[in-house]
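Letters spell out the chain; backbone shape is given numerically. Both lines appear below:
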Amino acid sequence: MYAVVGCSECSALWVVEGRPETSQCPRCGSRRQHAKRRTFVETDDEDHAREVRASMLANRQDHGEAFAELDSFADMDRQVETSGVDDDTYLEASGVDSDAVAAAADRAGQGAGGGRSRKETVLAALRDLEAPTEADVVAYAEERDVPADYTRRALAKLVRAGRASESGGSYRLL
């Protein structure tokens, strides 16, 4: 689910995915409970939420009629994908071997953690362990070369963002 929400401090509008416990304004940084934010529209379609937000911004600046003449976000995304030069053609024209670039990208994506990013490793710990404590998650992550201080910060951020909860010292994904 996607929602177009507004900030009561600076009147910014943005799209929020899901129902986080709190949300932070991208413009002024004010943090409020998500339930207390003004919600203009809720939809299952991200493109629809983006279009509503864009329409509201255009109307604020008296450009609503010009906005109405534009194609939808989905149509414009398709046009972008078909226009211009693809990456392989650009690289080859620049004298760079696109196969070598793809191989390097694959190697970089694997890293020392078996293909998982640090955040993915912390999330995997919360999924795989039963009622894990902070120490359990830190130990799981350290076995996979994720530093303990990063793991603690990631747990705190996940709780603040409403993606995980902590109760009685145990964590779980929401």
